[in-house]
Amino acid sequence: MTTRVLIVDDSALMRQLLTSLLSQDPEIEVVDAAPDPLIAREKIKALNPDVITLDVEMPRMDGLTFLRKIMTLRPMPVVMISTLTQAGTETTLEALEAGAVDFVAKPVNPAGAAMAALAEELRAKVKSAARTRVRARPAEVRPRAPQRQALNRQTGKILLIGASTGGVEALKTVLMDMPADCPPTLVTQHMPERFTSAFANRLNRECPMSVSEAADNLRLQPGCVYIAPGAHHLELHREGLSYVCRLHDGPPVCGHRPSVDVLFRSGAKAAGPKIIGVILTGMGKDGAEGLLELRKAGASTIGQDEATSLIYGMPRVAFERGAVERQYPLTEIAGAIIERCVDKASVGARL
């Protein structure tokens, strides 16, 4: 089945480049291109594309404003074309929260290997976007308030979370429903360099716990979330009576660095039954084998269900391989994590 794409970008050179890169794939048809959102709006009505590629920074109406209008009035898959500036990074993260399926970062030096990598990534993400479940968004989104009461004690549990496409919004949903004194949490979200730091800072501003980019040999603390830096694998290691983050730049696993499999496998080896492993929305199979190793090591394992996953790829593979104890809708995952943090016997003794 052919994926029909509309390109929206104010740069004539970029419109030509994206058209050329996408058109080389026989499964993709570029139906047209628009220099700004106002023209794009009319082309969407006339052409009914499957996917839009949308520039972040444009005249007459910026990409983020146009995206919000699309998601309110005519929801459809959107892939953002992002700059690597700080402003572009922040806007891209806002776009992912607002409903964009994914993003592609413009290469700093668009030539040779960088161009080939861009072409491969762009085509894969456009075709993947065409298969997503895009839902209408309200015109105004009220800030979410934390829903969980404090644990009021250290549980001895360590939370490991893996996500890919759709994970920016999904991870925020889970963390916003967790208490400020959550168990130490390590997160691998497929995301390139320059974006993970901004992502961690954004979550830190909005979530009840402390969120930061992971650093090598950083000792884990309750109430803290550690995000894998782009281009580095994140692992959990035991050091005496404590646990620490370890970073390395080994080869990609399942095509990714950071890789969810690497994080989960390290958790199985370092802490086994103390781990709660969670796999969220994402394309591909990264994390499935690692989550299975976690379950075999005695960890509790949770998967996001099909109905609430933007892309039911990673959770599906993990579920089919027997790595997931139970699947939950996204809004119920935080509650499921908290249930596994609480020692039911000790709770019963206090009642």
Give the gist of this structure.
The chain is of the alpha/beta class and about 350 residues long. The chain has helices at about 10-25, 35-45, 65-75, 85-100, 110-130, 165-175, 195-205, 260-270, 290-295, 315-320, 330-340, 345-350; strands at about 5-10, 30-35, 50-55, 80, 100-105, 160-165, 185-190, 210-215, 225, 235-240, 240-250, 275-280, 300-305, 325-330. The longest helix has 18 residues, at about 110-130.
Describe this structure in words.
By secondary structure, this protein is α/β, with parallel strands linked by helices. It folds into two domains: 3-129, Response regulator (Rossmann fold); 158-350, Rossmann fold (3-Layer(aba) Sandwich), CATH 3.40.50.180. Helix content is 38%, strand content 21%. It has twelve helices and 14 strands. The chain has helices at 12-23, 37-47, 63-73, 86-98, 112-129, 167-176, 195-206, 260-270, 288-296, 314-320, 330-341, 344-350, and strands at 3-8, 28-34, 51-55, 78-82, 102-105, 158-163, 185-189, 210-213, 224-227, 233-239, 242-248, 275-279, 300-304, 326-328. The strands form three sheets. It has a seven-stranded parallel beta sheet, sandwiched between helices. The chain has a five-stranded parallel beta sheet with strand order 2-1-3-4-5, sandwiched between helices. The chain has a two-stranded antiparallel sheet with strand order 10-11. Strand 13 (300-304), helix 10 (314-320) and strand 14 form a beta-alpha-beta unit. Helix 3 (63-73) packs parallel to helix 4 (86-98), helix 6 (167-176) crosses helix 11 (330-341) and helix 8 runs parallel beside helix 9. The termini are far apart. Mean pLDDT is 90; it is low at 344-351.
